[in-house]
Amino acid sequence: MDPVPVVIDTDPGIDDVVALALALRSPELDVAAVVTSYGNSTLDRTTRNAHRLLEILGRTGVPVIPGVDRPLSRALVTAPEAHGPSGVGHAPVLPAPAIEPDPDALLWALDGCARPVVLITLGPLTNLALALERDAPLLRRRVTRHLGMFGSLRERGNTNRWADFNAWCDPEAAERVLDAQLGTVMVGLDVTRRMTFAAGDVAGFARSADPLVGWLGAALQFYVEFHRSQGRLDGCVVHDVLPVGELLAPGLLTLAQRRIRVDLDEGEHRGHTVEYTHGAPTEVALGVDIPRMGALLARVFRPGAGA
């Protein structure tokens, strides 16, 4: 069977680089392009981080296309407290070069693909919302399915009480994407909070002589320190791997149909993804097979291991 063509829109980000590494080390997937966004860090840094990961993997032929550097209408907010000033914790990187934002980045990526793709979004949904605004017919021809790490129905938020960071950053973009009925699967905190690495495992990754594992381990060590500072766990959550995991192992996530709207208030409910009585249903992840996801991650942290 031919690999599934994939475009990944991301804001690397510690858990983002783990998810990217999994996608790039999985023969079932053909990563056609990486589109970058602001989010966990600024656009120049997230783009630099994507390039650095591809260099380590020897995959510099995969295009990296810088997208937008701010939300549709909100002020730019990033997360250096969680991901470090560089966006990848303690992982070594060179200074980030200047980047010219491009609101058409996702459209360029899709237009360059020979076949329709699965779109995975791991950051704020601004690039996707702009693509819908600027050329919805092209987007709909080229995207067969959209798996996005955003939202929360029942789990406490990680930015305010109610919202996850990606929906909170640009709630207007998230609302546009849900309204567009793209075959979106919302993979939110209800399941991603369950995917964790123990601190001892991360320390072992950081000591690895494998260039990829050691680099990711250095990034993840910062994430462990952040989670400890929050009093949450002795380890870290790696949210962004689950959309990639579902594509690699269909049924990894337990999905249910829900009607969702996004709270656009500026108060404590900003970005909250809420079950609603009207509108078209969206697939939402409500359960996850964590052992199966852990086995998939062996492809990154134990190269050559079976999944």
Give me a quick take on this structure.
The protein is built from 12 helices and 11 strands. With 307 residues, it is α/β, with parallel strands linked by helices.
Describe this structure in words.
- The chain is α/β, with parallel strands linked by helices.
- The protein has one domain (4-301): Inosine-uridine Nucleoside N-ribohydrolase, Chain A, CATH 3.90.245.
- The chain contains 12 helices and 11 strands.
- The strands form 2 sheets. Strands 3-2-1-4-5-6-11-9-10 form a 9-stranded mixed sheet, sandwiched between helices.
- Strand 4, helix 5 and strand 5 form a beta-alpha-beta unit.
- Helix 1 packs parallel to helix 11 (241-248).
